[in-house]
Write a structure and sequence with these properties.
The complex is a heterodimer of chains A (about 325) and B (about 300). With about 325 residues, chain A is mainly alpha-helical. Chain A has two domains: about 20-90, no CATH class; about 105-320, MetI-like (MetI-like fold), CATH 1.10.3720.10. Helix content of chain A is about 75%, strand content about 5%. Chain A has 13 helices and four strands. In chain A, strand 3 and strand 4 (about 100) form a beta hairpin. In chain A, helix 8 packs across helix 10. The mean pLDDT of chain A is about 85. Chain B is mainly alpha-helical and about 300 residues long. Chain B has a single domain, classed as Orthogonal Bundle (MetI-like fold). Classes of the chains: A mainly alpha (about 325), B mainly alpha (about 300). The interface between A and B is large, with 46 and 41 residues. Chain A: It is a multi-pass membrane protein.
């Protein structure tokens, strides 16, 4: 088990370095001059040169990439003389637009994005699994049909459409909820939840639909297994059979998608965050695009990739917990 | 497919698997309905120039008489200015014809989505077959590549790529960028299918008979994987349409004045209080197309790939 985790962690680091290399090549080599973008319009030649030196753009490309990767593990000192900057571990670069290391920017925004993603995940799991299990147990009845048609329809709605409808219906017209304005969980949990309720719902509608479809098919398959018949024949209560024997085994494929979805959402809720004005990583990324803030774009891409890879690893480890047949 | 034949009624014995599939599909109301919707949008997209000539207004023609300058450029008339002149009403402020913009938007959206899907399916099938059939090092390299591609935060990456590339053909770039991340899904399915086919007796027979790998791959393996691939393809299309719309919604997709549904929705957001129809029209087009392709894909998967998915 420990050997397995170790091997996988090495794999994770390898994947992240590969992603960093690809992102680096694309965003630092192909387009416009990142130094000019960082410097802005009224940029003196002296300052431009300083920023170039800071970013290491005067160095060969492999050297720049090497510095970038070493910086992540050890931190690095950028520039020299008057413009010296120390970017501490883990250094993902320095945002000249925000005058702050990228890592600090990301960590500032992470609680918002994490609140959004985790809350939505709880909601969509509840909704999706319930709908899926109910539909599977009542296979081919009207309930099943209605739930599944509803799920396909909900999955076809773009998240910005659902969000606008929720804003229009619940905030503008009915006035039931305040317009979302992020409040930290530690400051006021009730406010935190009520403000995030709409963004959670918007995301949950989209994802729950997919989980309902997936858990339905997975449950139908599991409930046809002989061991379910055995459990029933033993006289176990229906609830125990469904939840402990059926759902638990049927969870593995759902867990796989869940890992990818949650990992992708932690730093990838660009649309939802910008519609609801939540100051999360997605918003940071969207802002960085407009300003051409390459270090931030790079940082967000890497963080998002890290979340996906780590989520996949955690999911693989959880398999063994959920399904006793899986061993490492 | 042939394994399932004994279960079917005597009347169907002798019919080809494709014929059986078609018969099964024709029985479903959802399939017929989604085919109608898909056909409608396909005609709309293909005949966009013709349709706008019929309606009389091009997608970029301004009609100042259709908007009221004293009401902040609101469309004249009810329901966003729907009239005999403007079939689906007009855009606020500019007075551009919404029907023309919607059908031209359909053209852009479907063109990008279908081309990207074709790319994904061809690349994915090739990679999947190669990985599954040759195994060993080829499989190891391709599978690593699939894992790597799937670890990319695709939406973030697509947005970033679309926004840094400045002076290129947006439609072409968008197709390439959207297509870049889809192939591992197809490749995984094809790889699994190929693995299960490559040691079947008829493949061994072909090998013993002296067929080369190319001939075996194209004549014996490819037809065997085509069912699941077709089903999966139909399920990829709505994802591609939605991604294109999302990128255009975020303002990194096709550039104005080229219309696209996502972009129209984004623009309509600031008018949704005063002119809800402007928001409703492109949104419902997007919703209906995605829904129709999803239903179609579901049905195809049930029929062509009975082992995976719903039963």
């Amino acid at each position: 088990m420990i050997l397995y985790i170790g091997r996988r962690l090495l794999g994770v680091i390898g994947v992240l370095i590969a992603i960093a290399a690809v992102t680096f090549t694309i965003f630092y080599v192909l387009p416009s001059d990142p130094a000019a973008a960082a410097c802005g319009k009224s940029c003196s030649a002296e300052r431009l040169a300083a920023i170039r030196a800071h970013m290491g753009l005067d160095q060969p490309l492999w050297r720049q990439f090497g510095d970038f990767v070493t910086g992540i593990f050890t931190g690095r000192t950028m520039g020299s003389g008057q413009y010296t900057l120390h970017c501490h571990f883990p250094c993902l670069g320095y945002s000249y637009d925000n005058s702050e290391p990228v890592w600090n920017l990301l960590m500032d925004r992470l609680p918002v994005s994490a609140s959004l993603a985790l809350g939505a995940a709880v909601l969509w799991l509840l909704l999706g699994l319930t709908a899926g299990v109910v539909a599977a147990l009542r296979k081919d009845t009207l309930t099943d049909r209605v739930l599944m048609v509803g799920a396909v329809a909900a999955a076809s709605l773009p998240v910005y459409f659902t969000s606008m409808m929720l804003i229009y219906g619940l905030i503008r017209t009915a006035g039931l909820l305040p317009y979302p304005e992020y409040v930290a969980l530690s400051r006021d949990p009730l406010h935190w939840a009520s403000n995030l309720l709409l963004p959670w719902t918007a995301l949950a509608i989209l994802y729950a639909a997919m989980y309902a479809r997936q858990s339905r098919s997975s449950m139908i398959e599991t409930m046809a297994e002989p061991y379910i018949r055995t459990a029933r024949a033993k006289g176990l209560p229906r609830r125990t059979v469904v939840v402990k024997h059926g759902l638990r085994a049927g969870m593995t494929p759902i867990l796989t998608i869940f890992g990818m979805d949650l990992g992708g959402l932690l730093a990838g809720a660009v649309i939802t965050e910008s519609i609801f004005g939540l100051p999360g990583i997605g918003r940071l990324f969207y802002g960085a695009l407009a300003g051409g803030d390459q270090p931030v774009i790079m940082g967000v891409t890497l963080l998002a990739a890290a979340f996906i890879v780590i989520a996949n690893l955690v999911v693989d480890l959880l398999y063994a917990v959920i399904d006793p047949r899986v061993r490492y | 497919m042939s394994v399932h034949q004994p279960a079917l009624a005597a009347a169907t014995v002798g019919a080809s698997p494709w014929r059986l599939a078609r018969r099964e599909l024709g029985r479903r109301a959802s399939v017929r309905l989604s085919l109608v919707v898909v056909a409608l949008f396909a005609v709309m997209a293909a005949g966009a120039p013709l349709l706008t000539r019929l309606s009389g207004w091009g997608p970029d023609e301004f009609d100042k008489s259709a908007v009221d300058p004293y009401l902040g450029g609101q469309p004249v008339g009810p329901l966003g200015g729907i009239s005999a002149e403007h079939w689906l009403g007009v855009e606020p402020v500019t007075g551009r014809d919404l029907f023309a913009r919607t059908v031209h938007g359909a053209q852009v959206s479907l063109l990008i989505a279908l081309t990207a899907t074709a790319m994904v399916v061809i690349a994915g099938t090739a990679a999947g077959i190669a990985a599954g059939y040759f195994g060993g090092r080829v499989d190891a390299v391709l599978s690593r590549l699939m894992d790597l591609t799937m670890s990319f935060p695709s939406l973030i990456f697509m947005i970033a790529m679309m926004s840094v590339a400045k002076d290129v053909n947006r439609i072409l770039l968008m197709t390439a960028v959207i297509g870049l991340f889809g192939w591992p899904g197809v490749a995984r399915i094809v790889r699994g299918q190929t693995l299960s086919l490559k040691h079947r007796e008829y493949v061994d027979a072909a090998r013993v008979g002296g067929s080369g790998p190319w001939r075996i791959l194209t004549r014996d393996i490819l037809p065997g994987v085509s069912g699941p691939v077709i089903a999966y393809t139909t399920l990829v299309i709505p994802g591609m349409i939605a991604t294109e719309a999302a990128l255009s919604y975020l303002g990194v997709g096709v550039r104005p004045p080229t219309p696209s549904w996502g972009q129209m929705i984004a623009e309509s957001v600031s008018f949704y209080d005063t002119d809800p129809m402007y928001f409703v029209i492109p949104s419902s087009c997007l919703f209906l197309t995605v829904l129709a392709f999803t239903l179609l894909g579901d049905a195809l998967r049930d029929v062509l790939d009975p082992r995976s998915g719903r039963q």
